[in-house]
Design a protein that fits this description.
alpha+beta
């Protein structure tokens, strides 16, 4: 699996000792408010999710990275690419996403990790387009999408949970790597 270094972060594969800190992030209602139906997840659910993320690397050649701070080695969350099967109207597509613990919000980590992920999508995986799917009202994620140069493409509704979604897109041939 690919590792990516940015000035402050390491995007890497998942380690066994990542489960507890990632489960802590997934157990925080402030974080999960914007994910799926907003339910928090426990350690077992996090372990199952990490297993699915690792399988996606094998199946698609991309997936979700664990994100750690280089200076401390601390896991702060995830970023990466996935196929948004839950939203058939945007298919075929590859979506970028990020999820960080709240103590790491507002420091530019999400934008830094996501920018490196877009470079990976273009340069290493040869993708020419990436989308982000955000719940309407998740202003922090909207801001990250805009910082990446993504533009709103459509509004829709989550097919299972019924809340409004905004899809942003970027043509990676115009991306400033």
């Amino acid at each position: 699996m690919t590792e990516i270094r940015t000035p402050r972060l390491l995007l890497r594969g998942w380690h066994d000792d990542d489960l507890v800190p990632m489960a802590d992030i997934n157990a925080d209602p402030r974080v999960m408010r914007w994910v799926d139906d907003g339910s928090v997840r426990d350690l077992d659910e996090t372990a199952e999710a990490v297993e699915r993320w690792e399988e996606e690397w094998d199946e698609e050649g991309f997936g979700l990275f664990a994100v750690e701070v280089l200076a401390s080695g601390e896991l702060i969350g995830l970023t990466g690419l996935s196929v948004p099967w839950f939203l058939p109207e945007v298919m075929p597509a590859v979506a970028i996403s990020w999820r960080l613990g709240p103590q790491f919000w507002g420091q530019g980590y999400a934008s830094e990790a996501a920018h490196a992920t877009l470079e990976f999508a273009l340069q290493d995986r040869g993708l020419d387009r990436v989308i982000s799917i955000n719940r309407v009202g998740d202003n922090a994620s909207e801001n990250v999408s805009r910082k990446l140069g993504m533009v709103p493409e459509r509004e829709t509704v989550h097919p299972v949970y019924g809340f409004p979604l905004r899809v942003h897109a970027i043509d990676l041939t115009e991306f400033e790597a």
